[in-house]
Amino acid sequence: MGHFLTRTAGQVAVFFAFFAFWEGLVDLLRIKPVILPPPSLIFVAIAKHWSYLLANSWPTLFAVTGGFAVAALLGFVIAVGIAYSRWVSDLTYPFLVAAQVLPKVALAPLFLIWFGFGLTPKVVIAALIAFFPIVINTARGLISVEQELLQYMNSLGATWWEIFFKISLPWALPYIFASFRIAITLAVVGAVVGEFISSDTGLGYVISYANTSLDTDIMFAGIFVLSALGVVLFLLVVLVERMVLSWQSAVEAAPETM
Amino acid sequence: MAAPAIRIEKLSLGYRTGNGPVTAIEEISLEIAPRSFVSIVGPSGCGKTTLLKVLSGVLKPTSGRVTFDDVPIEQTNLSGEIGYVFQRPLLLPWRTAVQNVLLTTEIARKDVPLADRVAEARKWLSLTGLAGFEDRLPHELSGGMQQRVSLSRALALHPSILLMDEPFAALDEITREAMQEQLLQLWSLTESTVVFVTHSIGEAVLLSERVIVMTARPGRVDTVIDVPFPRPRDEALRGSAAFAELVQSIRRKLRHSQPALEGVA
After folding, report:
1. How many CA atoms lie within 13 A of A143 on its CB side?
2. What interface predicted TM-score (ipTM) does this complex get?
3. pTM of the model
4. Fewer CB atoms inside 10 A, N or C side of chain B?
């Protein structure tokens, strides 16, 4: 417990040191606020424009969670196909790799044409970016199940569903949650890119609009709120993971048992 | 079903690899009496595990056949009749010891009420010396304890045939010897036929009625040796001259059946 408190204090101190350094640097070099506002001004801007920032946080939150949900659902289904069918795996793998290599952000302007303004293009971009780590990790998790154990269960007359829900799915859950951690941060990137290009709401819009009008303090306020949103969503995933995989955190905490 | 008479007739199994076809086992013929304890010893790659997998119905032979009480294995309903213990415990890390034991009966004995299956699981955990550890997760147990859970998981099925694939090979010597003696006691409580694969000649002699010595590449039966020592057997037997002599003679046979310079296994 003492160790935990020391660590948390240290982590908070790093943030403080970073902001203090930033504040001092801006002051020392007399950087104009329009180029780089000091953190103090940014926090003032956050307080001043709070309702504007909050109102624009909701659309971003919806886009991120919507994109994440679509990616998780589709990713899971396709991963099951890849894990259980050689045919699906062989056919889709090259396509998945090619699609993974493609910078999906580059497709964003296209989605503006296809889906217009509003929530849809943001969700689509967020889902597209978050999708790949979920597919790859989930499939890897499902494939990593001990084959001998599966053969044993088969020889006992287990059905596909029994094996899937009793063994394969719980076995893959640590992999799935690892991919969720990555995917949720990627979904934030996707949603903001969507808002840069085709939106008149959301934190991404706040940032790009403030940028064009040279309101650098509002721009940074938007970035700070966006970071906070991303951190909260990430911690939420971690929290759910801790609850679902309580046995696993116990494994991690146990010294040298494996 | 009661423990069946197992008959293996001219059993061969081959498979294709990148380097051409490989014969894992070739023309193996064996008879295993009901409720007996048979060990298979042999060098790595002699097809011991392959043979167990054919007996459990996981692998289909290329030729030859296996019958249980004269019924071909394909026509037998094996569900829940065959317990398996692997070299590694292969427990589910999110399930407690008792939940891990329940896994097999959950699948093969759905007709039995849950309360009875739980009582059965607890009984075997207690018989294997794990009373008080029922609600621990696998990572909280030592390697030997995990293997006891794995053994309980197989025994809770009341298997007519218990297949064991080097179950004690990964354990330290003290634990291994304790578990060998424990296995004999547990086996005397069951009706099971045990087919036990091992590298250790001493282990095979201590445990079994018959020791089947196999040769490698392709896997063939070299010799079948009857072990005359009466049961119950215990620690004292391990130190006896007759025991050492029999182990030595089997070791000589194994050496003889191996090429003088063995390649990489």
Report:
1. 14
2. 0.88
3. 0.85
4. C
Contacts of A254 in chain B (CB under 8 A): 139-140
- How far is it, in rounded angstroms, from Cα A231 to Cα B256? 68
Calculate the average pLDDT of chain A: 90
Q: Which tens digit of pLDDT belongs to each residue from A132-185?
A: 999 999 999 999 999 999 999 998 989 999 999 999 999 999 999 999 999 999
**Which helix (H) or strand (E) segment is B161 a member of?**
strand B161-165
**DSSP secondary structure of A45-106:** HHHHTHHHHHHHHHHHHHHHHHHHHHHHHHHHHHHHHHHH-HHHHHHHHHHHHHHHHS-GGG
Q: Using DSSP bridges, classify how beta strands B82-85 and B71-72 pair: parallel, antiparallel or unpaired.
A: unpaired
CA distance B154 to A182: 40
pLDDT at B85: 95
Sign of CA dihedral A80, A81, A82, A83: positive
Pairing of strands B20-32, B6-17: antiparallel
- State whether B53 and A151 contact (CB < 8 Å): yes
For residue B57, CA distances in Å to B31, B40, B52, B88 come to 17, 18, 9, 20
How far is Cα B131 from Cα B134, in angstroms, rounded to an integer? 6
DSSP β-bridge partners for residue B212:
B40, B224
Instruction: Please tell me the predicted confidence (pLDDT) of residue A249.
Output: 65
Amino acid at B76: T
- Give the angle subtended at the CA of A11 by the CAs of A65 and A174, to the nearest 5°: 45
How far is the C-alpha of B211 from the C-alpha of B40, rounded, in Å? 6
pLDDT of residue B25: 85
What is the chain A residue with the closest CA to B154?
A: A152
Q: Which of A151, A155, A177 best tests the B interface by mutation, with the highest count of B CBs <10 A?
A: A155
Flag if B84 and A157 touch (Cβ within 8 Å). Answer: no
Q: By C-alpha distance, which of A114, A76, A111, A113 is closest to A190?
A: A111
B133-182 residue pLDDT tens: 999 999 999 999 999 999 999 999 999 999 999 999 989 999 999 999 99
Report the chain B residue with the minimal C-alpha distance to residue A250.
Answer: B139
The residue-averaged pLDDT of A221-239 equals: 95
Tokens of B234: 């215990």
